[in-house]
Specification:
Blueprint (H helix, E strand, L loop, with lengths): L20 H12 L15 H11 L11 E6 L2 H22 L2 H7 L10 H4 L2 E8 L1 E3 L5 E3 L3 H18 L3 E5 L6 H6 L5 E10 L17 H4 L4
Antiparallel strand pairs: 1-2, 2-6, 3-4, 5-6
Helix pairs in contact: 2-6
Protein name: Nitroreductase
GO molecular function: oxidoreductase activity
Pfam families: Nitroreductase
Length: 225
Amino acid sequence: MSDATTYEAEPLPVRDRPEDPAQAAEAAFASLATRRTVRDFSSRDVPEAAIRAAVAAAGRAPSGANQQPWHFVAIRDAGTKAAIRAAAEEEERAFYDGQAGQAWLDALAPIGTDADKPHLTDAPWLIVIFAQRWGEDGQGGRVKHYYVPESVGIACGFLIATLHQAGLDCLTHTPAPMGFLREICGRPEAEKPVMILAVGYAAEDARVPAHAGKKKPLDEILTIR
């Protein structure tokens, strides 16, 4: 992507706007309130077109200086998913065997997670999100990217919300450390893996932790002045 050197304006794109924004926001909340992290996936196929559209939506997220410092690797190949699972579980075993510290393990206890990550091979798709720490100027030089964590975090939110609206389920997975993802996915040094998103349909007998459904009430997360 070439650097923009001058400011050029264009008209704001036309879009449909609901007559009652509060009602529309309530409808969006009602939909997202049913979103839950799923660890049990069915073998039901998810078309590539759905993944492409969801990632395209994520790519519309705002970013610092519009540098769009992200890359998404969507994986349906069974061998690649198996390699990711093996590497992730190796890191997770070290995590749960004491690397994390007892306080962290105590915080995770109500979620019911452990070192086994079958979702990494059960889910029909894995989307690995990378943050581009710097770009290139076309002459071998580096171009600094600004607000990378913030920008990538917003894009991930767009992606998860779009997948939910598409009727799909997902699980955010952040093995630590996760440098192995760069090697498996063949990504350059400039890119830092941020998370794995397992995507598919929940199994018919899927169960989710009750604790994870307990969200803070609005008056604890909102201040209006």
